[in-house]
Structures are given as structure tokens and as C-alpha cells.
Amino acid sequence: MPEVITKNAEEFRERKLNFKTAEENNETVIIAKNSYITSRRLLALSLANDIDNPGVARANAAVSVEKPEGDLEWARKNDGYTPLQQHILFWDRDGDGMIFPWDTYNGFRELGFNIVFSILATFIINVNFSYPTRLAYSWFPDPYFRVYLTSIHKAKHGSDSGTYDPEGRFIPQLFENLFSKWDKDGDGALTLRELFQLMHGHRCAADPFGWSAALFEWGTTWLLIQKDSKVYKEDLRAVYDGSLFWRIREARQTPTGWAQGWGLGGDGFIGGTKIF
């Protein structure tokens, strides 16, 4: 891991030095001199050396430079589901394609969140995302506030990272851009400050629902997986494809529990280290 971080940091510094040369040589220009923001938020370059067609959205796996084919075992196990569907499979434990409010609650409890936060998460998720996914079947709201797995792409909202496309596929270029733009020291992780800058940078105008949803999603991610006050790249990739949720659940069934996250203990957002 230290070698990867060092390599990423060196490549990050080298890219910054080579932008002017690229423009002078008529190569792809990613900085516009009359748009200051383009020089502050740098795109991930040369991904084709590590990922085939990085701009093409994947319908089966969440991939990165470090895992150009994604988690192969996970992708094979969930063949036929998009990465966005894989992301929420953890909460569809009975495999009926529907996530009831109690499914959401039980899932958050198994991840270690306390009762209050789990109830809040259930309210936010099922109240806000049930009807959009229901529209694939009916104009009438679902009386049970179920979230439908097949049509989860309809719950995609504004002001997000764009890593999932409108159909729920995973776009490697946009995932790598999260770190190229916001990981200022190139260490392969995002601090809480950088996550807030990320949310601010992706906000769309007049989109209070999207702003709130992004805050809830990134905030929950921070509470669940931060380590040394940072969200690491591979952990975040595994959140996108949902495989990390199962690993957390398994870890919490062991004597050592899940060693990451914030607020361990009965009074924090995260409950104890074991399922209770």
C-alpha cells in the first residue's frame, strides 16, 4: 500500500507540471485559461494504460486503476445486476427484489448503526426513494414504502458524483476523477474536509433534495468506513459495488469486530463492534 500511495503522489505532481507542455503540443487540453476552476479540479489522465475504455460505463462491475476488472468473485456472484443494484443488494436479504422499511432498518443495524440512526436512515431512504422506483410499475405510491431493486436507477438524484450513470452502470473515469480532483496530496484517500469539498463541487443549482441526499450518503459512508480520519479508495470502490457491506457484517460477527468507522460504542452513531 505505501508503494502505491507514493506512486500516486508522484504521478499527481508530474501531471501538474506537464499540463502546459500538453497544451503547447496540441494534445488533449483539460485546462481553459479563462476558467480558473479547470486548473483546480484536475481530471484523471492516462487511465487507458490501466483500464480498458475508462469512459465506458460498466454494467457488471465497479472498477478502478488498482482493480481494472473490479472484484471478480463478487461480479460473478452477482452476474446480471448493475453496480447500482449490487450496491443495495445487502438490504434485499430475501431476494424478492423489494426492500421494505424493516429490511433497511435491519441492514443498518447489522452494519453497526445504533437504533436512532437506523430509524432515521429507514425514514430517509424508504420515504424518498420508494415512489421513484415504484413508477416503473404504477403511478400509485407503494403502501409499504418498498424500494424496488429492478428500477433503482429511477432513484438516482442530482448533485451526486455521477459515478453511476442514469441506468446504474459504473463509470471508471468519473470514479477516478473523484480522487484526481479532490485528493489534494495524492495519497489515495479523502479526508472529511475533502469530502465536503467534493460535495460542494458537485452541487447542482436549485437542487436542495440532491444536496441533502449527497450529504446523507457521503456522511453515512464516512461514519461507516473512515480509517485514520480518511476514506480510502478501495473501500469506497467496494461501497459502490456493495461488497463492503457484506464484509463489514461478517467482521462484526467475529471477536475483533469491524475496526473502521466513527463513533464506536453504544452512544455513538455506530453501535458496538459486534451484532447485538
Automatic annotation (TrEMBL):
An annotated Gene Ontology molecular function: calcium ion binding
InterPro entries referenced in this protein's UniProt entry, alphabetically: Caleosin-related, EF-hand-dom_pair, EF_Hand_1_Ca_BS, EF_hand_dom
Superkingdom of origin: Eukaryota
Signal peptide: none
Domain EF-hand residues, every copy: 170-205
Keyword Calcium: yes
Pfam families xrefs: Caleosin
Keyword NAD tagged: no
SUPFAM superfamilies, A to Z: EF-hand (SSF47473)
Protein family (similarity comment): Belongs to the caleosin family.
Protein name, as recorded: EF-hand domain-containing protein
Taxonomic lineage of the native organism: Eukaryota, Fungi, Dikarya, Ascomycota, Pezizomycotina
